[in-house]
Design goal:
By secondary structure, the protein is of the alpha/beta class. The chain has three helices and three strands; from the N terminus they run βαβαβα. α1 links the parallel β1 and β2. It starts with a strand and ends in a 7-residue tail after the last helix. The mean pLDDT is about 90.
C-alpha cells in the first residue's frame, strides 16, 4: 500500500521528475505531483493546491532559485522545501 504524497516539483527537466517520482514510489509513496518551471506557474500552483512537500532543482532555466525560495518563505507556508 502506497502513502499518498502531494508534491510540487519545480524544475525544467521532465526526466528529473520521472526519476524523483520513481524513487518516491520505491520508498512507499504515491506521489500526486505537479511540475512547474516558471515563477508565474509556481505562484499559481501554490494558490490552487495544498502540497505536502516542495522539491526544487537548483538550476532553473526560466526563473531564479533564490527568488523562488524568497517567495515561498514569504508566503509563510509550513511546507518543507
Amino acid at each position: 500500500m502506497f502513502i499518498p504524497l502531494r508534491v510540487l516539483m519545480i524544475g525544467d527537466n521532465e526526466n528529473d521528475v520521472k526519476l524523483l517520482r520513481k524513487e518516491m514510489e520505491r520508498g512507499g509513496y504515491k506521489p500526486l505531483h505537479k511540475r512547474v518551471d516558471t515563477f508565474d506557474s509556481l505562484k499559481e500552483a501554490l494558490n490552487q493546491g495544498v502540497w505536502d512537500i516542495i522539491v526544487t532543482d537548483y538550476h532553473l532555466g526560466k526563473c531564479d532559485i533564490f527568488e523562488v525560495l524568497r517567495y515561498i518563505k514569504g508566503q509563510d507556508l509550513s511546507i518543507p522545501v
